[in-house]
Every structure is written in C-alpha cells, then in structure tokens.
Amino acid sequence: MRISILGAGSWGTTVAALVCKRHDTLLWTRDPGIVEEINDKHHNQVYLPGFALPEALTATHDMEAAVSRAQLLIIGVPSHVFRGVLGRTADHVPPWIPVVSLAKGLEHGTHLRMTQIIEQVLPGHPAAALTGPNLAREILAGKAAAAVIATENPSVAGMLQTILQRGLLRVYTNDDVTGCELGGALKNVVAIAAGMAEGLGVGDNTRAAVITRGLAELTQLGAAMGGKAATFAGLTGLGDLLATCLSPHSRNRHVGEQLGKGRVLGDVLAEMVMVAEGVSTTPVAVQLGDRHGLELPICRIINQVLTGETTARDAYADLRHTPAGTESGPW
C-alpha cells in the first residue's frame, strides 16, 4: 500500500519508520532541511536525535506529490495547524481513501476533535484516530507498546489494524471515537498538573491523587460529550494518562515540571522544539466544562497557572483546601 504521512515530528516520523518496512511510505514536511536529512542521512535530528531511520523511508516537501499518490493518508501535525494542513490536501487527495489523525488535541473556537475536522474538510473519506500511550522514542527504540485505532467503520478498523501493527506495537480497535480522542487530548491537561507536582516536590501521594482525580475529571467531561465511561479506563484514557504523567519524555509533564520550579510559561515553551498540546487544550477543556455544567477543578486551576493568574505553588494549595466530596464526584 502507498502510505503518505504529513508531519515529520517525533510521532509522525516514528509511525512512518514503522510502516515503511512493509509499505511504500512517503513522509511530508515543509522543512527542506529535514527532507534532505531523512533521504540522505536517514536521520531526523531535530525531532528524534540519535535514532537511525530505515533506508526505505523517503521524505518530500512537495504536498501535491505526497498526497496525490496516497492510498492511506496519515496526518501527524499538531492540532492548531491540523485544519490548515488538511485543507491543502483537498485538491490532491484521491477519493474515498482513509484519513488517520495522530494529533491529540481539540480545535480552538470550534472545540472539534480531529476526526470531526477530517469529516468537515474531506467529506466522504473514512476518518480514524491512532491514539494511546505512544511515546515515540520508546517505540522507535523497539520497546513494546500498545495503541488504539478509533473508527466507527469496522472494515476500515480491521484494515488499519493490519497495516499499523508492527513488531512489538500492538494495535487494538475501538468504535468509541469520541471517547478515544477526548482521552488523548484531555490527559495532556492532567499531565501538566502531574508535572507541577514533580517540580514542586510535593510527593508521590499528592501526585497520585492528582492523576487519579484528573482521570475522574476527564471521564466526567468525556462522558458528558458522548464518550463511553469505560473507554477512559482503557489504553486511550488511563493508559495514555499514566504514560504522559510519569514519563520524563512527556512534553506536557515537562511544561508542568518547569512551572512547578517557578519558571515562566513563555520561557519554557520557547526552549521546546515540539508542541505541548496540553497548553492549548486546557482553556478548551474549561470552556467545555462550562458548557456541560462541570466543575473540573484541576483543569480550571491549571488554566489559571497557564494564564498567569496564579502560581503552581498557590494552585496546589488551593486544591488542598478544596472540600472533598464523594470519590465519584469532583475533586
């Protein structure tokens, strides 16, 4: 199968490196320097320093060349540019081919999930999301991992499962697209909170409480938006949450940790090559909480830290002083 992947960040490059061993794979990036490095040196030092890429993987900065050949199109760009990049494909993408999102975020303004954007921009194309606890560096290093392909179309799910499963990467299917995508997006907010706990040095008990109550918040919001509560106890909910909150490779945890150490958000983000989706997802989560009448205290206090209304230290003090209700309810 001819597979085209748009976006040569760490995860897009990793997926391309996996599937190119059995399929004709072309990776698109707007950066000619990365194209040259992948094609000539088989590296992507900007996003995956120290890793060798398969010689079978080729790259291009020609969008039309990448898209027009595709029998499967995978979009691996951040959520804030997702619609724009996808729009550029509309005149070139072959009819009816599946389109898979790798992004874990929600669109500002519309609050749409990425598969919903695919359905808007490329109507008639089966839309799916690949999500779960997938830290790119570990997978590229050959360590075992599990992912989920989320789509309501069972035949497309089976085809994508066969294509994407490779080596020690197990790929499950799930027809709860809403729950899977929301779990992947909202866990980034909790990861910032967990990182703050690490930066503040408040202890593992506190961090465990924040992760657990954060899971309750994203489950409440996800269920209110139409996802299945059980989905948030699976790979795309709890699994992704744990990996993102605990791994030192997590971008969102890193942001929170630096804020916990007293640093300014703008300075932290300026040092990062890759995008921490939780920074842009947090205000969207708060807006969705307002829409559905949910308290979401962790999401709200993290949003206040990100906007500079409070500090990470004061945020944790506020959470400690919040009266405890039932465990099945808010914080």
UniProtKB/TrEMBL annotation:
Top EC group: oxidoreductase
Keywords of this entry: Cytoplasm, Lipid biosynthesis, Lipid metabolism, NAD, NADP, Nucleotide-binding, Oxidoreductase, Phospholipid biosynthesis, Phospholipid metabolism
Domain Glycerol-3-phosphate dehydrogenase NAD-dependent N-terminal: 3-156
Active site per UniProt: K187 (proton acceptor)
Entry-linked NCBIfam families: PRK00094.1-2, PRK00094.1-4, PRK12439.1
Pathway where this protein functions: Membrane lipid metabolism; glycerophospholipid metabolism
Binding positions for NADPH per the UniProt entry: S10, W11, R30, Y47, K104, A136, R251, V275, E277
Known catalytic reactions: sn-glycerol 3-phosphate + NAD(+) = dihydroxyacetone phosphate + NADH + H(+); sn-glycerol 3-phosphate + NADP(+) = dihydroxyacetone phosphate + NADPH + H(+)
Chain's gene name: gpsA
Protein name: Glycerol-3-phosphate dehydrogenase [NAD(P)+]
Job of this protein: Catalyzes the reduction of the glycolytic intermediate dihydroxyacetone phosphate (DHAP) to sn-glycerol 3-phosphate (G3P), the key precursor for phospholipid synthesis.
EC number, UniProt record: 1.1.1.94
Domain of life: Bacteria
Positions annotated to bind sn-glycerol 3-phosphate: K104, G132, K187, D240, S250, R251, N252
Native source species: Nonomuraea rosea
UniProt xrefs under InterPro entries: 6-PGluconate_DH-like_C_sf, 6PGD_dom2, G3P_DH_NAD-dep, G3P_DH_NAD-dep_C, G3P_DH_NAD-dep_N, NAD(P)-bd_dom_sf
Entry similarity comment: Belongs to the NAD-dependent glycerol-3-phosphate dehydrogenase family.
Subcellular location field: Cytoplasm
Domain Glycerol-3-phosphate dehydrogenase NAD-dependent C-terminal: 176-315
